[in-house]
Amino acid sequence: MARFGIGKRWREMVLLGCCLLLAVAGCRQEGKRQAPPAPTGPQALVWPKDQAYTGAYVDFGEAEDKVTLEAIEQFEKMVGKKQAIIAFSSFWGEQSFPRKNLELLARHGSLPLVYWSPWDRPYDERRPPDRFNLHAILAGKWDRYIDSWADGAKAFGKPMLVSWGLEMNGDWFPWSGCYYGAGKVVPGTNPPRYEGPELFKKTFRYVVDRVRARGVTNILWGFHVNHTTYPTAPWNKMANYYPGPDYVDWLGMSVYGMQFNYQAWTKFIDVTESAYHELAAVDPTKPMVLAEWGVGEFPGRGSKAEWIKEAFELLQGRYSRFRAAVFWHERWQNEDKSYSNLRVNSSPEALQAYRESVAAPYWLDRPMYKPRLSALAHAGNGMKGKRSENGPEKTRSRKLGPLSRLLSLKH
Q1: Would you say 203 and 134 are in contact if contact means Cβ atoms under 8 Å apart?
Q2: Which of 96, 106, 200, 281 matches a 20 to 30 Å C-alpha distance to 66?
Q3: Could you report the per-residue pLDDT of 162-203, keeping only the tens digit for each?
Q4: Residue of 265, 262, 250 whose CA lies nearest to 390
Q5: Three-class DSSP category at 101
Q6: Does residue 231 have a cis bond before it (omega within 30 degrees)?
Q7: What's the pTM value of the predicted model, to 2 decimals?
Q8: Cβ of 201: how many Cβ atoms within 10 Å?
Q9: Which residue(s) pair with 74 in the sheet?
Q10: Taking the alpha carbons of 75, 78, 83, 85 in that order, is the dihedral positive or negative?
Q11: Is the backbone peptide bond immediately before 129 cis, with ω within 30 degrees of 0?
């Protein structure tokens, strides 16, 4: 009887243990079922607070759009860091949407920065307005192309930075204000508004409105100026071109040091200081992006390595409102047969300076995202978001010509 009683109790204990194990397993499974799924819906870019994204344009050819995985990976291996942002151009003269480039960058895990420029072939500076002139755009002559580009962006669906009509405060691109009335005062305006900047603003808004009307919510629009305003006249100030906070998601700026052998050597702070504060004052709430930056290699004139080191140091401190910095990695031949070499590996010293500087944890190698609130609202109560969202969490024809660069370095 005693042995039977012990066996019975033993069986009860085993049974109780099994029940407990099943209960624990059930709780674990229940916990797994309750865990939120990995986000698969529309995403919004998160701007870092105390860090910044690193990025580059990697010599993608004459039209700046021949993006290849090989070129990107070679650059990343060379500098020792993956690029959170990869930049390239989409010139209107190509009359196409860069779907393959965007999909390649999405697979690679980089955020695209697209310079969407209303520019026709040949892509030479200081040519007068062409068939993509601002009047033609406002007259609706290129609506079909804009709509097609918008539809492509909507189908892509992922966040993308777009810089439309960059460096409008210079005189080298055909959309610059100097070609459209420049400083002529618009009648009846007080304080005075000027025809050149006003027409640019009107066209910028027209393009953005038309793209948004196609249901595009994944574009973050950039207001992208040059570090030096030329002509240096009151009508040509950066703020006069600003389309307004409802049309802009980020403020961008191009900053270049010496590029041609007849120019004087300048430090990074010399070409950035006043422009940074002028752009920051345009809108104190928007994140800023160093959308292009670089310097040539000129032994005996100045140290490119020191220039790069200084730039990285200042970007982490004095100019910390820049939430991203996109280096312009290119080499080209000038008309006088000299070369302008902006590549990070133009010398072993320059490359070492870049590698050591960008290795700092401050520079993020991958973009951060969060669920797009407009998409959540749409799923929850039927509301549809209307605008993009951002959180705080060859021969050279693309860049400035000799005269404008010389003037920019003098001012």
Answers
A1: yes
A2: 200
A3: 999 999 999 999 999 999 999 999 999 999 999 999 999 999
A4: 250
A5: helix
A6: yes
A7: 0.84
A8: 20
A9: none
A10: negative
A11: no
